[in-house]
Structure of Secreted protein:
Amino acid sequence: RVFVVLLLLLLFGGHVRGQARNDTGQGRVECQQVLMKEVYTCVSGQGIDFNAFLEMVSGGKDTQNGTNPAAASPPATTASTTGEANLSKEKICSPRQEIMACIVKAAQSIFKDSPCVAVKEDATLNDQHFLLKEQLEAIIGQYDVFCAHPCRISLLDDMRACYSKNDLDPQLFMTADSSGPVIGATAYEVEEFCQHSESLYTCLRQSRDDCQESHVVLSSIGLDLDLMNKGVQVLCADKPAYLQSLGCFDSHTKEVEHCQSIKYRTILAMVIKARTQSWTEEQYYQEVCGVILSHIQCDLTAWEAKGDEDCTETTLNLKRKLHCTLIPKQCQTSHNATVAEVCTMQGRSTGVKVIQHWVFVILLSFLLVRSAEEYSLN
């Protein structure tokens, strides 16, 4: 569902401060109709009967209220039971990327400058804003699920099985909401994990490659296997520092959380700005790299300030190495001097912890790279 969530963020997140107009019941209905007409245009433009499309994708349920899928009054069509019967799943799903791109473009236009823009501070006006958000989420979400490949359901179980096949604890499998050690909690567990890491990642990559929609599943949990493998190699290269880091990073400080919060907010605002201003990839990475490097410095300083006896110079420098391993290659060119300064500076400043913080580093690096790829910023 991360695709749907990020899509809605891009559509709605940057336009909540404009002046709302036509905030009447009729105005809200008109906005819904405008949105549905745009969706209708995107769908019918691919030669697909719109009402039959809604009927199949929603399973006969309204995208809002569980009754009639055309409740928002899309343009009148001649859809019929016959039209639905002649509409195959392949015909609906083949142009999915084109339809999604069309809906994104149309919705961005609607929410930039129209009676459908809401004011953040006014809850009443926001009713209209979020009603439209829910309507769009229902349509896009149901469409995405309808077209999903069956491997979406089994992929994570298949990947966990790779741990069992290598005599490793499946609970070590990394997901964005997991907690616990990354490669083990004891010297024995860490040694076993590192010895089996190559065969483990061979199995994980095979599971990923066998599923044609693995990118959807893995992005939803913030997991990039290649980045994960790089991170694990850093940890396995210094097992004593990793084990000591478990005590250092078992709890966050307000300063650490502040650095994370700043990075999240900055990244999200930047992605929205990149889309609305049609940044080139070069412009995008110019901003991205600045955010990443600023966060590394903020994060390392915050952990050093914790003053925990387990946060030794060796432990903290392991975290620096992990951070620097995950810096996108584009930053090596555009910010080479800063990268060199951040990644070679010695002293108390970094380490790796339990999985929650380790995942945070991997996840944001992954999202930054994927956002440039998926939204074609050029």
User: Anything to note?
Assistant: Residues 61 and 67 are 5 Å apart (CA to CA). Residues 250-374 form one domain.
